[in-house]
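Records of this kind hold a single protein each, on a pair of labelled lines. With that in mind, the following record should read easily:
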Amino acid sequence: MPQIRPITDLRNTTEISNLCHARREPIFITKNGYGDMVIMSMEAYDDLLEIAAADAAISEAENELAQGGVLHDAREALSSLRRKHFG
């Protein structure tokens, strides 16, 4: 369940910081009853960036395949990499 807090709660920075780290998800901050900001811990932000990078790579691969990209057998590719890098 997302945490939604009024902007006045930001006065207690320690509590908000602890909440960000404990929940490892964004906290939505409202101002005058409307959405204003989103805050999160650095760990949660790093996780979000990793997921976004993986999603982008998958999307790029799907687009390449749709445009006639060549598929390679995973076993052959891994075997080739092993020979190349480990003798």
In short: Residues 1-40 form a domain with the YefM-like fold fold (CATH 3.40.1620). Residues 42-66 form the longest helix (25 residues). The chain has two domains: 1-40, 44-87.
